[in-house]
Amino acid sequence: MESDQVKPDPFNRNCGSRQVIDRIGDRWSVLVVLTLADGQKRYGELAQRIDGVSQKMLTQTLRGLERDGIVTRTVHASVPPRVDYELTDLGRSLLDLVSGLEAWATTHLTEVEAARTRYDGRSER
């Protein structure tokens, strides 16, 4: 019996796999996943750890990650209300990928900065 499903193609702009790549490749998403790697965090802890993220972008990122099943949001009935975020099993499956990206960026930072300097010096001539 043949499947009517089409193979996902992220190079096709209408394919859902491209949306998944956009979500997990977004800088804020990568940083949220890395921050949640060692367990659940409150919104304020995430905001404090991820330097430069605005409240609006952090909220949008967390909602998108929750929608995609990568993060869970738990609201505790307390005063004041407490909200925790945690990686799901699906989100934890991204850890090797995003940790590898972090490791590559930190390992090769000097080389990238040198390449930028060479490039920028070339374009100033």
TrEMBL record:
<keyword id="KW-0804">Transcription</keyword>
<keyword id="KW-0238">DNA-binding</keyword>
<protein>
    <submittedName>
        <fullName>Winged helix-turn-helix transcriptional regulator</fullName>
    </submittedName>
</protein>
<dbReference type="InterPro" id="IPR036388">
    <property type="entry name" value="WH-like_DNA-bd_sf"/>
</dbReference>
<keyword id="KW-0805">Transcription regulation</keyword>
<dbReference type="InterPro" id="IPR002577">
    <property type="entry name" value="HTH_HxlR"/>
</dbReference>
<feature type="domain" description="HTH hxlR-type">
    <location>
        <begin position="15"/>
        <end position="113"/>
    </location>
</feature>
<dbReference type="InterPro" id="IPR036390">
    <property type="entry name" value="WH_DNA-bd_sf"/>
</dbReference>
<dbReference type="Pfam" id="PF01638">
    <property type="entry name" value="HxlR"/>
</dbReference>
